[in-house]
Design brief:
two-stranded parallel sheet, rod-shaped, mainly alpha
Length: 218
């Protein structure tokens, strides 16, 4: 009888140990699973406000459709605190979102893009300045060339032109004759003698005296 009682106690003890081990194992697996789930949930909960779509932003606490659209319209953000500039985003609401949102790589990309734009703008300004300087130099050179060319077109002493056949440009080479008077001289053709130039409006004796040594009618 005593032997049977001892055997039963051993069996009970073994069952107790077996149950304890199984319970411990189950608890360990459950704890590890819970921790892993928390870790995954924590990492999944971080939403990048620079890249998240409207629906994702709406999943955040306190963020409705209108606010989600306003957040997207205000991109990019260099930091989470810049959400202050979005209508409806109070300091309290932003603080409540800390740990759930971030201003990720898009902010860095935006900063890089902004720097690139500044460099491009500076290069363009230098190019424009250089182009403007080149244009001024070209204009100055053309002006000097035109003056030289105009001076060269003036007739030399003893050189004559036929006022009945000369072109407008050739007539403009006469002393004191501009485009308007040159055209008037052409319109009054033909001339029988050089003195007939005084029939042209604006050419009187004084002007003719300057021209007579440079013109002919044949």
């Amino acid at each position: 009888m005593e032997k049977t009682s001892s055997t039963q106690m051993v069996r009970v003890w073994r069952m107790f140990l077996y149950t304890a081990v199984i319970a411990s194992l189950i608890m360990g697996v459950t704890t590890a699973s819970f921790a892993a789930k928390k870790t995954l949930e924590g990492s999944a909960a971080i939403i990048d406000i620079n890249t998240a779509d409207e629906k994702t932003l709406e999943s955040l606490p306190g963020i409705g459709k209108a606010t989600a659209k306003a957040i997207i319209a205000g991109r990019p953000y260099k930091s989470v605190d810049e959400l202050k500039r979005v209508k409806g985003m109070s300091d309290k609401k932003i603080q409540a979102l800390k740990g759930k949102i971030s201003a990720g790589e898009a902010a860095a990309s935006a900063a890089t893009a902004a720097t690139s734009q500044k460099v491009t703008a500076a290069e363009k300004k230098m190019t424009d300045t250089s182009a403007a300087a080149s244009q001024k130099a070209a204009a100055a050179e053309k002006s000097a060339t035109d003056k030289t060319s105009k001076a060269a077109k003036k007739l030399a002493p003893g050189q004559r032109i036929n006022i009945n056949t000369a072109t407008k440009e050739e007539i403009q080479a006469l002393p004191g004759i501009g485009p308007a008077k040159a055209q008037a001289i052409i319109d009054a053709r033909p001339y029988d003698k050089p003195e007939d130039l005084m029939k042209v409006k604006g050419i009187k004796q004084k002007t003719f005296d300057k021209l007579k040594d440079y013109v002919s009618v044949r």
